Amino acid sequence: MERFKDVLKASNLKSTHQRLAILDCIDSFGHIDIDAIYEHIVPKYPSMSKATLYRNINDLISFHILEEVKLPNQKQQYEIKKVPHIHLLCTHCSKVEDVFVETKPLLEAVTLNSGFTISNSFIVMNGTCKECKA
Prior knowledge:
Elements: H1 2-10, H2 17-29, E1 32-33, H3 34-41, H4 50-62, E2 66-69, E3 77-80, E4 86-90, E5 96-99, H5 104-114, E6 123-127, H6 130-133
C-alpha cells in the first residue's frame, strides 16, 4: 500500500483509507468490476457506500491512476493504469489478461493505411486462455 500512497501524493490526492483499499483491491485482481470491488471492500470498511466507491473511482480515473476496461458483452472493469497493452479476453471463462507488446507499429500502420489520426486506442483480442484449452 505504500506505493499507492506515493502515487496519490504525486497526484496531489489525499491518501484516504477508501482510496488505498480500492487501489489495493484492483491491484490484487488485475481487472475487476465495481460490484466485485464493493463486495471485497465492504467487509473491511462497512461504512463505505457505493456512492463513495463510484466517486473515488472516478477521481482515480480522472487523475490517470486507474483506467476503465471496456470489454465486449461484459461489465465495465477497472485496472491500475499501465503502459499501453492489449487485453486478451477468454470467451470461455471471461478471464482477462494483459499482454505487453509494442503497439506503436500497429497504430502507425492503421494511420498510414486509413489517414485516420488515432488519439487513443483500446485493443481487445478474444480467444481461449491456456487453462480453458487444457
